[in-house]
Amino acid sequence: MKGLDPLVLQEVLKGYLLEDLGHGDITTCHLPKRDKWVSAVVKTKAPGAVAGLILLASLFHILDPTVQVELLIKEGEMVKEGTPLAHVKGPALALLRGERTALNLLQRLSGIATITREMVDLISSTKAKLVDTRKTTPGLRLLEKYAVTVAGALNHRMGLYDAAMIKDNHIKVAGSIKEAVEAIRQAIPFTCPIEVEVKNLTELREAIQAGADIVLLDNMDIALLKEAVALARGRVITEASGGITPQNILQVAQTGVDYISSGAMVHHAVWIDINMKIG
To answer: Could you say which residues of the chain have pLDDT below 70?
Structure first.
């Protein structure tokens, strides 16, 4: 999986399973014939872009390494209602214990992939690239950001550790954009970019003069955004952010901005209904 080492993935999935299992599945563990092999079909009950299928084998193998998973479509593929997504075979105990966790992840990630695909398609005629944000669900960031990439968008920084981003509160603490950029530049590796959030043209000029690599044009209306992009062109990478939705993203992209960041792909995503039925 992009951006997620298999060992890290196993630990993440194990945590999700333990959250549901607690001291044990008191229903399944007392069923007769719970060790018999069964087959199940994972099927979508609504249209959308599917993400998270590649988690299934890793998740069920934590419960029982003998479980067999056959994927029937490609990750990120757009599907219609009623499309079979995967076949899962193995001991009933393992399938029943992992069912809800598997479906929760599939439904959540597919919802993110679906709205992301919509937004990517809306700006496909422009040069702008859609990127995500750190507005993610605690504990799910790596997987939510993965779902974004499945649908054709890009990841912004993963956390506070992999890029320097100077926002309004950082500027207040430092005293000015110039002071913040200079102090951080001296402390970080030369390979690490510095991004500065600006709200107006005065702050934009200061960020450019201070040597910022990227400027985040925050909550600017279209007229101001066009001015900012023209001023920054050829001098610094531009990113528009703030209130970006499927309804306004094309208008923002048409200003000529390089990147558009949006948290809507995660916090506006609607789960795609998916089930798993034992035959």
So the answer is: 1-4
